[in-house]
Amino acid sequence: MFHLQERQLHIILGLLFGVSILLFCIMALPECAMDTGKHQLETMKDYSEAWVCDYETDNQDKLAEYLDAEAIAAGSNSIREVVTLPASLPVAADGTLVMTNKLPDIIDDMIYMTFETKRQSVEVYAGQDCIYKSSDRGQNMSKFHMIPILSQYRGTNVTIKLKEDVDEKEEKANTDAREKRDKKNANLLKVGKIRYGSYSQLVANAFSENGIYAVTAVILIVFSVLMMLLWFWIPNMAYKKRVLINAGLEGFGLGILFALESHLFQVLTGWNYSIHFVKAVMILLIGVLHLQLVRCFIYKKKVLSLVDMGILFYGVCYVSFMVLQGFSLMSFETIYLIGKILFGIALLIYTIVLMVAVYDYGRKEGRMVLFGNGVLLLSILAQFVSWILNKENSSDVYLPLGFLLYLMIIWFYGLKQAVYVKNPSDTGKEEEVRLRGQIVEQINPNLIFASFHTLQKMIKNGSENSVKMIYYISVYFRDNLRALDKAGEVVSFEEELEHIIAYLQLQKTRNQSLNFAVECKEKDFKIPRHSIEPMVENAVKYGIAGKEHGGNVVVRSYRREDGYAIQVIDDGIGFDKTILTRKSETALLRLLDMLKSSCKAQTEIISKEGKGTVITIVLPMLENDLLEEI
User: Which member of 318, 320, 510, 552 has the greatest number of CB atoms within 10 A?
Assistant: First the structure.
């Protein structure tokens, strides 16, 4: 079954971030521009009326409206009309739209004219001077134009030239489609409103448009950085804090994405192409970070494989999209749109996966995260419905609020899990003393003395098995002392099995009617030291010892669908399981509770009086991998 290790996930994420930073430095950083400005905060003035538009068109209705029959018959298709923006003008394919207006009186040293375009290259002239030309980078993308105009151009005419911005590959591929296009509705070139004002007015206007994105971005980034700092500061084991670091990284990525969605960020930086690049990259990285967060609450092997395949799928998409963009076969704007769709689908699928993990597999700790995902899905649905009902003026509040609530829920759970430490408190010290006392009791001095007595007889009789006997005594005594010195230490099951075999061999020398078998197909996993051997001792001392003619003990380990399984089986006298639910704790109950809390183990006891006992312990694979970090 496919399964990624924690180190492999860190490598994948590190590579994606590293490649993203490298691509940004190579492709986007040269396109970054910074404009500066000052002064009072006022609203920008509308500059959308009385634009004289000159363009060529194939639209017959438009030609009939502005030209006489003689001019049309002569093949003339040039039109001049006065429009108020926004407007959609039927410009001929590959034609240029020239818009002219008189600049207002400029009081400040500099004002800014702003407008947005889609798939159009832009040139702006004040009188005869070209004061702005859009970058050739980022074809087929929306662009936010912020054009500085000096006071020396007061009262002159401003001319804006717009031309459909289509690269050669796309133009060649779409030649046939252009020829078949209905001329009446051909190539509607949309032009939005134009405004002007001082830099401070520009900032205020941008904030008023969708300032909630900027506010959400600041909150997410500040809290995410705080969560990541707490990850370093909180003195707990790394696997206990993994929710905190994953949620912090996802929140930081979302904060960047919301900042880029804000017009305020565009105004402050003057970026166009770079914004589209970062948004396209970030939406894919956020998908990977979200799946890594979901992975913290999955323990079933099949379900875990689904999450890992999702992470690899995002990695493949990332590489494929970047290659396609490099060959101009896909724009960053298209990648961003596909990334948003993929995130929505992944969110829905893995919310269902989390629901199965929480309710079918009894993982109660995932309920809060499941609730957070539900809030996020509802916010996305509300935003979509708002857009359907009112495409032009849909509300922007649902997505920021949904993501903010979702991350607050995750951060709260991550902090709660990270801060909980079974640590150096008075209660913890008392527990440690109690555990050490229990281990001292389990050293079993009677067994060791009896074994030395048996060894003495073997040496006197010249038995060849005396060497083996010395080995088993030393292993048993050594492991008991290690358990006393390092209570709760995590070791490989193979090491614990060596201790178990040594104990069974020593008991076999005292009681020849004891038979045992070790059937361990899987040994490469971790468990707390001295956690299984006491169960084997219980089977021998309380199960087999109560039978007249001895009995059998079997120790098994194997891999199954939901993790690594260990079984301790005996055909002894059995016992009444109700003693495990009484207020007076038993050693077996304490062992099982310890395995549940430290390893998230699932345990099962089947016992019939007179028939024997089967104890089964299942260690989830993900938790077991993380035990290596303890």
Answer: 318
